[in-house]
Write a structure and sequence with these properties.
Helix content: 25-40%
Strand order of the largest sheet: 1-5-6-10-9-8-7
Strand content: 15-25%
Distance between the termini: 51 Å
Bound molecules: phenylalanine
Number of strands: 10
Structural class: alpha+beta
Shape: elongated
């Protein structure tokens, strides 16, 4: 009862205050110009990380767990780091203006994160175990699966006695960590100037359980990127002895992985920055 009495006092005090205020405002506000103070306010939205950055964080977390460190490099590069040191010949089609954005002669927007391999090996002696997430640029016409700006995450491991089997093991372990124990990984022979032997690798499509859907173009597999054993020419360009060291390198398409994780059917959504899209993550 005592608390009830005090609450009633409080209620009366507040009511009096409100009435006094209403009295003092009377006549000062035109009825039409007044507005309803009981309307709910405008809500502000809490910002969050872009889905691509959420995927980068997850990739970094998984590779950290396997002992990889993070390395970074500039987006604007010289053709030495993007091509020459990666054993890519002068007349290679990737160097063409239609594939690469040049800032000026010899200066370009990196077309892949393999540049960071070279920079890291120049700066330290083996063993090297890094991943390098970052933006890349190619002069592609945008469509559902191409964007002139996209994300890659490079991996590099150099030491004595590193094998192709080690590389497969790490990529398979990553795939299972990222997409669960049922995902399958497929390696197909390929060519890259900076690795020998080289592969492209695919993950089984988790959206349809490999039955075939729009995202995997009805073949059950999704191409993730390329990989291979570091070419001795690359070791020579950075001053490593190819007789002593071996290593593997792999790329990773961060956009592809993001699209798979969140079932996004068009890469352009990741770069349009439409808040109605971004709010869903
Ligand atoms: N840099 C290659 C690309 O962008 C991918 C790759 C990375 C291949 C490392 C082999 C080794 O397509």
């Amino acid at each position: 009862p005592a608390a009830g009495a005090r609450l009633n006092q409080l209620k009366k005090k507040l009511t009096d205050l409100i009435e006094a205020k209403a009295e003092s405002l009377k006549g000062r506000i035109e009825p039409e110009a007044s507005f309803d103070y009981t309307l709910p306010g405008r809500r502000s939205f809490v910002g969050r990380r872009h889905p691509l950055m959420q995927t980068v964080e997850r990739i970094v977390h998984i590779f950290r767990g396997m002992g990889f460190a993070i390395a970074t490099g500039p987006d604007i590069e010289t053709d030495f780091y993007n091509f020459d040191a990666l054993n890519t010949p002068e007349n290679h089609p990737a160097r063409d203006l239609s594939d690469t954005f040049y800032v000026e002669k010899g200066i370009l927007l990196r077309t892949h994160t393999s540049t960071v391999q070279v920079r890291t090996m120049q700066a330290q002696k083996p063993p090297v175990r890094i991943i390098s997430p970052g933006r890349c640029y190619r002069s592609d016409t945008p469509d559902a699966s191409h964007s002139p700006v996209f994300f890659q995450c490079e991996g590099l491991y150099v030491d004595r006695n590193v094998t192709f089997g080690d590389m497969k093991g790490v990529i398979i372990a990553f795939a299972k960590e990222m997409f669960g124990p049922d995902v399958k990984v497929r390696f197909r022979p390929h060519f890259f100037p900076f690795t020998e032997p080289s592969v492209e690798y695919d993950f089984s499509c988790m959206l349809c359980g490999s039955k075939g859907c729009r995202v995997c173009k009805y073949n059950g597999w999704l191409e993730i990127s390329g990989a291979g054993m570091v070419d001795p020419e690359v070791f020579m360009a950075v001053g490593y002895d190819p007789e002593e060291y071996t290593g593997y390198a792999f790329g990773m398409g961060v956009d592809r992985i993001t699209m798979l994780r969140y079932r996004i059917g068009d890469i352009r959504l990741l770069y349009d920055n439409d808040v109605r899209f971004l709010r869903q993550f």
